Amino acid sequence: MAGLKVTTLGGEPLSAEGARIVEYLEIRTADLTPQAIRDRVRTSAAQFEAAAAAVSEEQARAHPIAGKWSIAEIVDHVAQTQIRSAEELRHLVAGRRPPWPPVYEGLRSGAPDFAPWSELLEGLRAADNEVVAVLDAALNSPERPQATVEAVVVVNRALPGGGLAPQRFVMELGWREYGLFCRMHLMDHGKQIKRLRAAAAGA
């Protein structure tokens, strides 16, 4: 883990699941060009948008799994996170540390309670486009001193006696790692939409 600075909350050891995330970001950042990172983020954003757009407004508002977010809430969360991520990326690409608190997990607005589904989808696409636009600009930006930002990660880890429990940790990421982290976030929530749709179909 020499490449990325990692701090677990509570001082507990980093779980194997968390270590895999750190290793992925370190290896893929070293392997991929900035253009390849941009392309992967753009593809994952398009896939997430397509998964969200495939559901009706009624399906988007439903809660087929008790205690879990609806698809509308997931879309709002991703949009809110992406627009904050775009701002953080702008600072990182410019060689500056973003001045705000980290983008904490669970970031949402009140929009799913009142906004039309079409408006939530439009906001998602606009936020995704902002992230991709920043990565586009980074391709032609002069190389600047490395700046980093805190990224808060939540991962489900296996417990010794069985079951899962969340572990939170913080990574210091440069803009390339941060871009891939955005991609991972999109992919994780895309899988969440699939689980909700499967649960609704089973019901």
What labels would you give this structure?
single chain, 203 residues, mainly alpha, three-stranded antiparallel β-sheet
Structural class estimated from helices and strands: mainly alpha
By CATH reckoning, the class would read: Mainly Alpha
CATH topology (fold) name: Four Helix Bundle (Hemerythrin (Met), subunit A)
Q: Can you tell me the residue ranges where pLDDT is under 50 for at least 5 consecutive residues?
A: none
Radius of gyration: 17 Å
Task: Give the number of DSSP strands.
Answer: 3
Number of domains: 1
**How many alpha or pi helices?**
6
Strand content: 5-15%
Compute the separation of the termini in Å: 44 Å
Compute the average pLDDT. Answer: 95
Strand order of the largest sheet: 1-3-2
Shape: globular
Helix content: 55-70%
> How can the largest sheet be summarized?
3 strands, antiparallel
Order of helices and strands: EHHHHHEEH
CATH architecture: Up-down Bundle
Look at the structure and name the CATH superfamily. Answer: dinb family like domain
